[in-house]
Amino acid sequence: QVQLVESGGGLVQAGGSLRLSCAASGRTFSSYHMSWFRQAPGKEREFVAAISWNGGTTYYADSVKGRFTISRVNAKNTVYLQMNSLNSEDTAVYYCAAQSIYSASWSYNAESRYGYWGQGTQVTVSA
Q: Higher model confidence: residue 105 or residue 50?
């Protein structure tokens, strides 16, 4: 198993930046593709960004492309989400999730394929 703990959320003004971190413990971090999802009030959880086990491949939701950057440092068992040019629509609870590389082919935006989730961190963007 792998345990995930997010941090770095908070209150930021529109146009500002935040960097989220997700620290993993347990099994080998490099055995997992990692993703960020978010859930805004009254909405379903949605895919934000994903990164392959070695950092070589990344994917983004259209709504964050060009503003958010996902990265990972396997030596630190950590995945990051750098968020720039934030707006009110980015207000949500952000979750990191892990999908084993030993499962079937990677479904980077399929919530059901991620077996491990963090508790979430709140990001609030004020106008």
A: 50
